[in-house]
């Protein structure tokens, strides 16, 4: 799920996934080998339906929020004038925002996986068991609002400059689109970020679906590790590595990672 404070930030999310959609539709051989669930192919109408539903939520839920956006930013103490923030200030604040968001999002997301939360709200986001970029903000309106809170909490606790705030929202959106892209590119620079989850990590959460008790965190992997909610994923990964070794050389395609079992192992 994604946070938005202005319609411009939200509209960026409607444009950034375009290259991913092209890759998905064209199924170029060079990219296809990095598809996490290669057997799942969404048609153009299916993708357009996702886009349309996301647009509807933006207009009906995110749009009205614009009325309180600027006053609320001023109220929490975000400055808009000179001097501009230093690079170090921006880096430190962005790091804090990511950590606060990740931790809070983890618990809200985990709560949404109880019976009531899942049936009434979170089920919508899980309609895509093999997500695409546009599925990142595809969710029930209540989830759009609830998961906006973790993104606003960091800037409210450690207010900085408006530029830092914009950068934070942009990075968080791009990160969420990337983790829902359905592709795990080995050259992705995020591979060098310590404890970063990435596309494969969150894809597993969608693949398992409603029963999933694994991989709740939005950005990093440390919360799932500390609270023991990555055991199913790690077990699957271990088996996959073993299977991959066995299948190596007999012409099997990349992408069997989630197709040999539909059973998620409960963490507890
Ligand atoms: Zn979920
Ligand atoms: Zn998701």
UniProtKB/TrEMBL annotation:
GO biological process, one term: lipid biosynthetic process
Places the protein is found: Membrane
Primary site of residence: membrane
Gene Ontology molecular function, alphabetical: iron ion binding; oxidoreductase activity
Keyword presence, Transmembrane helix: yes
Segments passing through the bilayer: 12-31, 57-78
InterPro entries associated with the record: Fatty_acid_hydroxylase (IPR006694), Sterol_Desaturase_Related (IPR050307)
Top-level taxonomic group: Eukaryota
Boundaries of every Fatty acid hydroxylase domain copy: 95-229
Keywords from the named record: Membrane, Transmembrane, Transmembrane helix
Any one GO CC term of the record: membrane
Similarity section: Belongs to the sterol desaturase family.
PANTHER family to which the protein is assigned, alphabetical: STEROL DESATURASE (PTHR11863)
Protein name (record): Fatty acid hydroxylase domain-containing protein
Organism: Castanea mollissima
């Amino acid at each position: 799920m994604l946070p938005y404070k202005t319609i411009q930030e939200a509209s960026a999310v409607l444009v950034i996934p375009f290259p991913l959609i092209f890759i998905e539709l064209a199924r170029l051989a060079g990219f296809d080998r990095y598809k996490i669930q290669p057997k799942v192919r969404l048609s153009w109408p299916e993708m357009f339906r996702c886009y349309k539903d996301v647009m509807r939520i933006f207009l009906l839920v995110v749009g009205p929020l614009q009325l309180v956006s600027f006053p609320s930013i001023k109220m929490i103490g975000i400055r808009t004038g000179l001097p501009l923030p230093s690079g170090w200030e921006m880096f430190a604040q962005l790091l804090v925002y990511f950590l606060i968001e990740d931790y809070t999002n983890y618990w809200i997301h985990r709560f949404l996986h109880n019976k009531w939360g899942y049936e009434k709200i979170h089920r919508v986001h899980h309609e895509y068991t093999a997500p695409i970029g546009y599925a990142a903000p595809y969710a029930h309106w209540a989830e759009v609002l609830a998961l906006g809170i973790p993104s606003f909490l960091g800037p409210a606790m450690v207010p900085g400059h408006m530029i830092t705030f914009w950068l934070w929202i942009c990075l968080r959106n791009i990160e969420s689109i990337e983790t829902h892209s359905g592709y795990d590119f080995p050259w992705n620079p995020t591979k060098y970020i310590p404890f970063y989850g990435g596309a494969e990590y969150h894809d597993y959460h969608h693949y398992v679906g409603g029963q999933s008790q694994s991989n709740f965190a939005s950005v990093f992997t440390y919360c799932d590790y500390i609270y023991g909610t990555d055991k199913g994923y790690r077990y699957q990964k271990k088996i996959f590595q073993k299977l991959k070794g066995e299948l190596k050389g007999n012409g099997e395609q990349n992408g069997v990672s989630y197709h040999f079992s539909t059973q998620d192992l409960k963490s507890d």
